[in-house]
Design brief:
Length: 194
């Protein structure tokens, strides 16, 4: 299958293509998001055409992709410190079996402590895309960005070509910044007063 459209979209969105052949595209990007409490999200995207997507493929790929993502985007931060790495698997399937479809549309458990695995599938026989459309409370500001990416990679879309901005994330960034500023002012005031 020709993956040129997906490669072009990943490049347009600022992803670096790590590898590409007729079986898979692997791309990475690290970006700061001021609308996500100024957090840096590191993401690895795998775009893979398959004939029939079933859970055996997803299960095998999940382990492989999480391990490969750790190698592609290593972190010097300790494992227990908050850091984020999203592994996005986009399957372009001739047919998606019901179990794989159910997995893609369900809330997916986090991977190892620092990683999130987000699977999505395009069923070319029906033209339907399957991916979780919810958002968890913790880390929810990222999911609109992940859904945007999945929609851009699974087919033509009329939606804006820019990533969405999280209003909640902007509000939380401002609140955290004001709290930090208040703490700094209080510290300086106490230091000067002696």
């Amino acid at each position: 299958m020709d993956l040129d459209a997906q490669r072009a979209e990943l490049t347009r969105l600022g992803y670096a293509i790590v590898s590409q052949d007729d079986r898979e595209i692997v791309a990475t990007r690290s970006a700061w998001y001021p609308d996500a409490i100024a957090t840096r999200l590191r993401s690895v995207v795998f775009v893979r055409p398959v004939t029939v997507l079933d859970m055996s493929i997803v299960t095998r790929d999940r382990a492989r992709m999480l391990a490969e993502a750790r190698e592609l985007l290593p972190s010097v931060l300790p494992r227990w410190l908050q850091k984020s790495r999203a592994v996005v698997a986009v399957y372009l399937a001739d047919v998606v079996d019901p179990e794989a479809r159910a997995f893609c549309v369900s809330p997916q458990a986090l991977g190892p402590f620092e990683s999130l695995f987000y699977a999505a599938a395009l069923d070319r026989s029906s033209g339907a895309s399957y991916y979780w459309q919810g958002a968890p409370l913790w880390g929810g500001v990222y999911f609109s960005k992940l859904r945007f990416l999945v929609r851009r990679l699974t087919g033509p879309t009329a939606e804006p070509a820019r990533e969405p901005v999280s209003v909640f994330g902007v509000v939380m960034t401002v609140v955290v910044a004001l709290l930090l500023l208040q703490a700094i002012v209080a510290f300086v005031y106490l230091a000067v007063r002696g």
